[in-house]
Amino acid sequence: MTGNHKEKTISRRRALAVTGGTVAAGGLVAAGFQSASADTTSDATASATASSTSDACMTLMTSVTEGPYYLDGALVRKDITEGKAGVPLTLRLTVVDATDGCTPVKGAAVEIWHCDAWGYYSGYTTANPGGSAPAESEEGDSANDLTYLRGYQVANANGVVKFETIFPGWYTPRTCHIHVKVHTGGEKEDGTYEGGKVNYTGQFFFADDIAEEIFTLDPYAKHTGSYTVLADDMVYDGGGAASGLLTLKAVHKKDPSKGYKGSLTLGVDPDAEDTGGGGGGGGTPPSDAPTGAPPSDSASPSPSASASS
């Protein structure tokens, strides 16, 4: 992949294999709150909107699979690109308490991670994204120590976090997506987030028409093959915002290369603990599903986990 990488090392690394087990009750995400996506809406207004529309907070879904490409110890930072090329994406996420009238969850730590424009995850750069893609430019241990497209942000008094990243690419057999965890009870330490518990594990999704237009642009167009649309994805269940579908707004309507702003409100139970092994499809992966080993000090993901990443 082109671009200058900052060689930051993940000190505590673990790849958690997905077992497909039942998630503890309460790790939930709420649908809606589209008003939070408006660039001109203040955080205070967004908070008031969330509190006054608690009915939407009752439309909930359980957590979904964490996938095989999770790494512990992501950095607390707003910009997670580390020089990766791609269409800019600004994420604005609002965390609310679904058990208390959708009040903002101040101090919640939102963690996201996703693949680059060609389908590679930092820490797993030998994993084949399927189809035909240029090789990751970095090789060996030095590449697996990189931390691009992973990070935390801690919610402000209105439950809001913002990330600067790029539009994710894709890999077989998945549609375009971003992974997310919501943590509470921990604290920032040594540049990352320590302690506490995970309240929600989920994934964000992108409308097919927008994703497919992005994938015609450089550098995405260098990855060719069969892209999985939302209706055929093994994790997305068709529930719209309640299932993690982002609200997207183009920065420039006539030029998608200028980037997008994405938003969603997450309703969680701050008292609940999520295992990260939620449902979300499965089945037998195709023969060209992602392959390759995680870093040497991580547990290898199971074949079924690779199918549901």
Topology order in helix (H) and strand (E) letters: EHHEEEEHEEEEHEEH
How confident is the prediction overall: mean pLDDT? 76
Outline type: globular
Unreliable segments of 5+ consecutive residues: 1-55, 281-309
- Helix fraction, binned, reads 10-25%
Largest sheet: 5 strands, mixed
The proportion of residues in beta strands is 15-25%
From the N-terminal CA to the C-terminal CA, the straight-line distance is 21 Å
What can you see in these coordinates?
The chain has 309 residues and is α+β, with helices and mostly antiparallel strands. The chain contains five helices and eleven strands, in the order βααββββαββββαββα. Strands 3, 4, 7, 10 and 11 form a five-stranded mixed beta sheet that branches. The protein is globular and about 45 Å long.
Set down the secondary structure blueprint.
Layout: E1 28-30, H1 43-52, H2 54-57, E2 60-62, E3 88-97, E4 103-104, E5 109-113, H3 140-144, E6 150-154, E7 160-166, E8 177-189, E9 192-205, H4 208-214, E10 247-250, E11 260-268, H5 303-307
Parallel strand pairs: 3-11
Antiparallel strand pairs: 1-2, 3-4, 3-7, 5-6, 5-8, 8-9, 10-11
